């Protein structure tokens, strides 16, 4: 078995990956940005009235004319009205957001909820509404009436004026939020967002194949006596800390093979990795192997749901789910399915130049120490094609979209691995063309022949002759 070698890990690259994982975890939740905004609003509600106290007597008349000019009772009414209206608008915004999430879950896919929750416009709008509400309440407590000789009236003109400005900004934000929400629930926008996120993930974590990359190097194969490392928890693999695994392998003078790629499901007690000494046949010592196994478990981090931080296949899973949901009898929307396949095609085209499949991580002496599983192009193409082919090949538009995807990929494929994967999927799709009759079948046969000619041409010009396809 062969794979790519990445060389020894770069501490700066490790730090960037950790920061990316943390940023993804925060970005996909609704609460962090509003929580920070509320904290800042409390501080501003305390600090701005203090600033009023310091500058009220020195305020130039030209500036004071634009500030709030009412008394304490008027300031209370204004701040109270702002607080009451903003909490109502915030409740409306939360309601609209939850309705949108429910629609996305039932109409498209539950796995799109993470994408909606990461919407910056929604987070910033909620943050503005909540911070304005909290700021108005905090300033309200500083307004004082004149009750005697010892207590003078205090009206924080700057603070009340700022509250008014935040309210105007909130009204504008509400109008923009409604327009954004209408656009956000359109399927074209959803598909484009998932496609862009997936391509960004691939650009960050996948190296690009170049002309001088050379052939793939053989991967170290574990011996029969390799020590198995079992998972301690259940969930999905969301991150593999390459640097931590490499450090542990070097310290134990061992080789490590992680068999579960990022995005794969885990069940507690099942093997996730194997380790063995660099110099067999002597096995690892019991204490050494146990310590190495613990560090491997710590480096393979799991979660209750998949994320896009290191998982290239997750975006394709989301897009394929939209396609399959659109093909269900309850929805029956082949046009949406075709749009989803077009988005899948765009992602797969971006992945063609990338180096997929398992790869090795080397130590400072360029010796292979760690082998980490990663999906191959064939795995990702099968993920995209299998369910749409099973559930939608009877629809001529979906079948044509599948053939068009394979045709385009065949024209851009540059390796034997890519051409083999495309050819295998083409054979399976052609076998379903018999389900159609008359002109539709002849049209799909022409599209299938075009795709097969593209595979054959690339194969003959760059590689060995193609295997004969099965008759449709």
UniProtKB/TrEMBL annotation:
It holds the Pfam family DUF2254. Keywords: Membrane, Transmembrane, Transmembrane helix. The chain crosses the membrane at residues 30-48, 78-104, 125-143, 155-178. The keyword Oxidoreductase does not apply. It comes from the Bacteria. This is DUF2254 domain-containing protein. Residues 453-472 are annotated as: Disordered.
């Amino acid at each position: 078995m062969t794979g790519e070698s990445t060389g020894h890990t770069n501490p700066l690259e490790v730090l960037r990956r950790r920061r990316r994982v943390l940023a993804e975890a925060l970005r996909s939740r609704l609460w962090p940005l509003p929580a920070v905004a509320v904290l800042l609003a409390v501080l501003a509600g305390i600090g701005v009235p203090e600033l009023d106290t310091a500058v009220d007597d020195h305020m130039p008349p030209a500036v004071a004319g634009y500030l709030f000019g009412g008394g304490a009772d008027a300031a209370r009414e204004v701040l109270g009205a702002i607080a009451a209206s903003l909490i109502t608008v915030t409740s409306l915004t939360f309601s609209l957001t939850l309705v949108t999430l429910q629609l996305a879950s039932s109409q498209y896919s539950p796995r799109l909820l993470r994408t909606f929750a990461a919407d910056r416009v929604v987070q910033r709008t909620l943050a503005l509404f909540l911070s304005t509400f909290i700021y108005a309440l905090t300033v309200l407590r500083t307004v004082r009436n004149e009750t005697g000789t010892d207590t003078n009236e205090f009206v924080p003109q700057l603070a009340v004026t700022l509250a008014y400005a935040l309210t105007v900004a909130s009204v504008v934000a509400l109008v923009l939020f409604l327009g954004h929400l209408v656009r956000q629930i359109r399927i074209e926008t959803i598909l484009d967002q998932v496609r862009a996120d997936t391509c960004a993930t691939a650009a960050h974590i996948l190296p690009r194949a170049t002309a001088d990359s050379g052939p793939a190097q053989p991967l170290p194969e574990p011996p029969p006596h390799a020590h198995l490392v079992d998972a301690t928890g259940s969930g999905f693999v969301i991150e593999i800390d390459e640097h931590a695994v490499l450090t542990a392998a070097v310290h134990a003078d061992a080789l490590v093979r992680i068999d579960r790629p990022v995005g794969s499901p885990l069940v507690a007690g099942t093997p996730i990795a194997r380790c063995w000494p660099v110099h067999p046949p002597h096995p690892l010592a019991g204490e050494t192997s146990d310590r190495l196994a613990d560090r491997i478990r710590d480096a393979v981090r799991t979660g209750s749901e998949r994320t896009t931080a290191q998982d290239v296949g997750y975006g394709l899973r989301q897009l394929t789910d939209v396609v399959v949901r659109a093909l269900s009898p309850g929805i029956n929307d082949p046009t949406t399915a075709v749009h989803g396949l077009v988005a899948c095609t765009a992602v797969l085209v971006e992945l063609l130049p990338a180096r997929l499949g398992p790869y090795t991580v080397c130590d400072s002496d360029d010796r292979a120490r760690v082998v980490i599983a990663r999906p191959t192009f064939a795995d990702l193409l099968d993920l995209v094609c299998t369910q749409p082919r099973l559930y939608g090949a009877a629809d001529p538009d979906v079948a044509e979209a599948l053939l068009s995807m394979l045709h385009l990929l065949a024209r851009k494929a540059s390796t034997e691995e890519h051409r083999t994967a495309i050819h295998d999927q083409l054979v399976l799709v052609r076998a379903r063309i018999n389900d159609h009759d008359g002109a539709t079948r002849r049209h799909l046969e022409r599209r299938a022949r075009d795709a097969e000619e593209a595979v054959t041409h690339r194969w003959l010009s760059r590689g060995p002759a193609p295997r004969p396809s099965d008759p449709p």
